[in-house]
Fold:
Amino acid sequence: MNVRASDVVSSLASVLTEKIGPQRFSLWFKNVTRFEITGDYLRVWVANPFIGEWVERHFTEALLESAREVTGQVLRLTFTIDPALAAAAGRKQPDRQAEFIATNPEREARHPRGTNGCVPPQRLPGRLDDFIVGPSNLMAYTATQQVVEHPAGMYNPLFIHGGCGLGKTHLLQAVCNGIRERQPSLQWRYVSGEQFTNDYIYAIKNRDLDSFRHRYRNVDVLVIDDVHFFASKKATQEEFLHTFNTVFTLGKQVVLSSDAHPKMIGHLSEHLVSRLVSGMVVRIDSPDVQVRMGVLSAAAKRMGVEVPEAVKHCIADSFRANIRELEGALLKVVAMAGLSGQPLTLSLAERALSELVRHTAPVIRLSDIETTSALFFGLTAGDLHTSRKTRTIALARSIAMYLARKHTKLSFPEIGKFMGNKNHSTVILASRRVSKMLQGDEEVAWCTPAGQKQMNLAVLITELEDQLGHRQPVPAPASVSPPAARKVETPAFAECVA
Structure:
């Protein structure tokens, strides 16, 4: 990077610090992110997907405003994972991040509303016409289309789940845009699970629950993204359940999304889970080759560049996890060609992507394992990064490490670095202990707001692997007594791993 570019990045960091405050900048940007401006794009390199998701959700507007002030341009924003940044983070930074999340409910919900109390349409870019359809997402797309054409019809409620970056948010936004265009008289509201929670907390603090309930219950279409955010939040779950029941009973449409199936989200009440699965529950899988090629073609068109089919096939074959990875990889290839003045060839693409490919898991990403494991226990991925060793966190962390070792080609040190700079010996110990417990057909226990919960570890692992879409047989125990005769003891797992 030349001096001028370095000065621009430094100025960007300074302006961003002024906008969000030094505490937030230190927590979410210092050491764990770096900026790069290439053409019309601001690329934010992040240490891991957890930080990337948080930064994208909370600081997109501040980043783009800062970039516009520094460069005088309106830039596009893209995020890319750089595992090397994890080594620069302090050991206590994940602890501080988790504490910040738990104690600082951001009031991002105070943005001005548009007509009918809805989020302004310009904040919802997702449209059905722009969605790339393939076998991996056809059912979700079809269900969304039906909701747009017939709100409160057969698919009510509609619950879409799948990993990060697969198009859930796009489809939820497409519902709102479709309703606005086809049936403008209908009132809709689109929020994230976090925004709903923050609105609820704000209403309680200001003794304004009536206004809150009026906004969320007097709508024709209620759309809530990231419902897994309600995990472990008993009061929010109860309020949302009443909101859900009111909207549904009035014959109105409810559309929801989550990273996991409702039954796989830890610390959700049984009443809420039963309501969430009462309608159409559909999963989006990792993009198949048809979707990946379509996404690359659309992204190339937006960038205004001609990308040879061989280059698109190279990227599509190398990045199979989600849409964001594909777009980030294409951006790097295009940027390298532009900066070097070389034509967009297959050999250039292979050189540009060599480092990214090296850090990409071929089948299941470590971030997917981490998110799925955390959700099952009602935690966040950030909790697994911390140094805390409560029974629940230790169990979830150990299982995530075991699954990471089983389903990825990452080494023990790489897994440890990804999960909060843990020592490689921690990963080895966790993997061995989980394997030994599986061989002994043991039960595990963990704490929930409703008390201690207990489950057979082999069954738990199988459910997580089903959610990851890569179920494999777990090691069979040497000998298993008949269920009625087997003595089930409360498992300790008191030796908190990691």
